[in-house]
Design brief:
single chain, alpha/beta, Arc Repressor Mutant, subunit A, D-Maltodextrin-Binding Protein, domain 2, 9 helices
């Protein structure tokens, strides 16, 4: 009896795992959602194992799914390498992608996985810095594509999404109740001035507990409940959490995530990356309701 797994089903499963859902996987594979779901179901039946947990929002891998994914990726890589070697036509090259460090967590890993599933031989060189530095590099030709966090997108840029800025602190922390309010920001972070101006307008005293060159140093200070920080809603990290201040801290306004693309010849790989970036960041939704001001 033949014991052969369907590579099409393996690819559907691996793409769903890489993108976190059937919808995005279907777009990448140029199939309908029902076709992708059917392929995954066929693989589950062939292995007699449930590979995806479909009980919550989106899909997650079961323990058996984690094991199968490792094998699936190896099998698909070998399959694609053989076809590419025979055809010698797979796109290759490098795309230099600049992203502000504060919007890397939670989004960029999924973007890189989804792109690699489509163009495994194209290298993404990820450059993480502050928006001002990234725009300088872009102007000098050192980046092909950059994302920015700006109040207003300048000429040549595209606003992908606009999100509120929120206060963050340590999980279950109390620092935000103390006065003067201790703040931690990277040296060139544009959110720092906006936070300070909002506190001044609300007549809340503040002090800088840390000014650092590294965002990781800021994360450490905030996670230790030594200071508060500001991020775009939806981009808090495991080291920090939105502060449920109920209006005790002022609103800071919102900020846009911008996309800038250097002029270049038509490139299907770069176009694919841009599409994934747009879809991923546009899917971000504010997680906190607008706080009501505390009456004094």
């Amino acid at each position: 009896m033949a014991r052969n797994l369907d590579l099409t089903a393996l690819r559907a499963f691996a793409t769903v795992a890489a993108t976190g859902g059937v919808t995005r996987a279907a777009a990448i594979l140029h199939l309908t959602q029902s076709a992708v779901s059917m392929q995954v179901k066929r693989l589950e039946e062939a292995l007699d194992r449930q590979l995806l947990d479909r009980t919550g929002r989106g899909v997650t891998l079961t323990p058996e799914g984690e094991q199968v994914l490792a094998y699936a990726r190896r099998m698909l890589v070998l399959n694609d390498e053989l076809l590419d070697r025979m055809k010698d036509s797979a796109p290759e090259g490098e795309i230099r992608l600049g992203v502000p460090h504060d919007i890397v967590p939670r989004r960029i890993p999924a973007i890189l996985r989804a792109f690699n599933a489509e163009y495994p031989r194209v290298t993404i060189t990820l450059i993480s810095s502050v928006t001002g530095k990234l725009k300088e590099m872009f102007a000098d030709g050192a980046c092909d594509v950059i994302l920015t966090t700006e109040n207003q997108i300048t000429d040549g840029g595209e606003e992908i999404v606009r999100l509120p800025l929120v206060w963050v602190g340590a999980e279950n922390g109390t620092m935000w109740r103390q006065r003067p309010l201790q703040l931690a920001f990277a040296r060139d972070c544009t959110f720092r001035t906006r936070a300070q101006d909002a506190l001044d307008a609300a007549d809340i005293p503040w002090a800088m507990a840390m000014t650092a060159d590294s965002s990781r140093a800021v994360d450490a200070s905030v996670s230790a409940d030594l200071a508060c920080h500001v991020v775009l809603d939806g981009f808090d990290t495991p080291e920090m959490a939105p502060i449920p201040h109920g209006g005790a801290l002022p609103e800071i306004g919102d900020q846009a995530i911008g996309l800038y693309v250097a002029p270049a010849a038509p490139d299907p790989a770069r176009d694919c990356l841009l599409e994934i970036i747009r879809d991923t960041y546009r899917a971000v939704r504010p997680t906190l309701p607008r706080p009501k001001l505390v009456s004094g």
